[in-house]
Amino acid sequence: MALPEPRGARLAAEGRLPEQRVALVDLLDRMLASGVVVTGDIVLSISGIDLVRISLRALLVSVREHDAIEGGLRHDGPG
To answer: What global pTM score does this model have?
Structure first.
């Protein structure tokens, strides 16, 4: 009985995926370091008539303490 091919092996062979595995924490760290934009639309309608439309646009980024101090965003005391 042959073992099944690992998930993503074909995509890695085509050069579309990295060959090494990436932990979810590392992936989230990379995404938040550069920023991620999340967008979505919800439309509630009855009989083809749009009643409510909700649009969502959010920017998710991480802020390092060093960057916040240099950018003047940190206010610890008077001054």
So the answer is: 0.40
